[in-house]
């Protein structure tokens, strides 16, 4: 829950709320007015922590401190998130052997960095009648990667989309440098 979505004290719309005091003990269901008076008596705020419950659950606590803790949790969760980028390598079905090896090196580098790689073969004009050549090129890429000892997972095998044949390759678990 975002901190701007939290309702405190008089912003709470329910007539009755379930109250948990500053010590974490249940105080039961009471009218909103009584709960706000209880919070003011303690010198703290009444914060609606579970608005979807029936009746809504409110805690008596220091709102500034609570908001700081929530934001800290969100920052930590964001920090631990892994960002996976998808890199794309394009080629044509009439690619030379040396060019194929060069592109394979780039694919191996991208996989080594922990990125997914979309390998695409673009067909132009009459090449579209011979899509099996694209499949051969993609298979050759996988063969070169295997020969060079690159660990990978084939997420999506070769498939046609418009005038392109593509496959999606991701690094194998534990192979990231």
TrEMBL record:
- Pfam families per UniProt: IF3_C, IF3_N
- Give every Translation initiation factor 3 N-terminal domain span: 8-77
Q: Is Transmembrane one of the keywords UniProt gives this record?
A: no
Its localization reads:
Cytoplasm
Indicate yes or no for the key word Cytoplasm. Answer: yes
Chain ranges of the Translation initiation factor 3 C-terminal domain: 84-171
PROSITE patterns, A to Z: IF3 (PS00938)
User: Matching InterPro entries, A to Z?
Assistant: T_IF-3_C_sf, T_IF-3_N_sf, Translation_initiation_fac3_CS, Translation_initiation_fac_3, Translation_initiation_fac_3_C, Translation_initiation_fac_3_N
Q: Name one GO cellular component term.
A: cytosol
- Taxonomy, superkingdom: Bacteria
UniProt-listed GO biological process terms: ribosome disassembly
UniProt keyword terms in alphabetical order: Cytoplasm, Initiation factor, Protein biosynthesis
- MF-aspect GO terms: ribosome binding; translation initiation factor activity
Q: Which family does it belong to?
A: Belongs to the IF-3 family.
Described function: IF-3 binds to the 30S ribosomal subunit and shifts the equilibrium between 70S ribosomes and their 50S and 30S subunits in favor of the free subunits, thus enhancing the availability of 30S subunits on which protein synthesis initiation begins.
Can you state the subunit structure given in the record? Answer: Monomer.
- What this protein is called in its record is Translation initiation factor IF-3
């Amino acid at each position: 829950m975002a901190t701007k979505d939290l309702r405190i004290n008089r912003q709470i719309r329910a007539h009755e709320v379930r109250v948990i005091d500053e010590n974490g003990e249940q105080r039961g269901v009471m009218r909103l007015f009584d709960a706000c008076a209880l919070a003011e008596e303690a010198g703290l705020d009444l914060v609606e922590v579970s608005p979807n419950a029936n009746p809504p659950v409110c805690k008596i606590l220091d709102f500034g401190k609570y908001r700081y803790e929530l934001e800290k949790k969100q920052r930590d969760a964001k920090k631990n998130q892994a960002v996976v980028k998808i890199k794309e390598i394009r080629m044509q079905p009439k690619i030379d052997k040396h060019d194929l090896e060069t592109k394979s090196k780039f694919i191996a580098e991208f996989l080594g960095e922990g990125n997914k790689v979309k390998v695409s073969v673009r067909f132009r004009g009459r090449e579209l009648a011979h899509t099996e050549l694209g499949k051969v090129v993609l298979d050759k890429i996988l063969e070169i990667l295997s020969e060079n000892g690159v660990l990978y997972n084939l997420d999506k095998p070769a498939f046609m989309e418009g005038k392109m044949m593509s496959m999606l390759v991701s690094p194998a678990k534990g192979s990231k440098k």
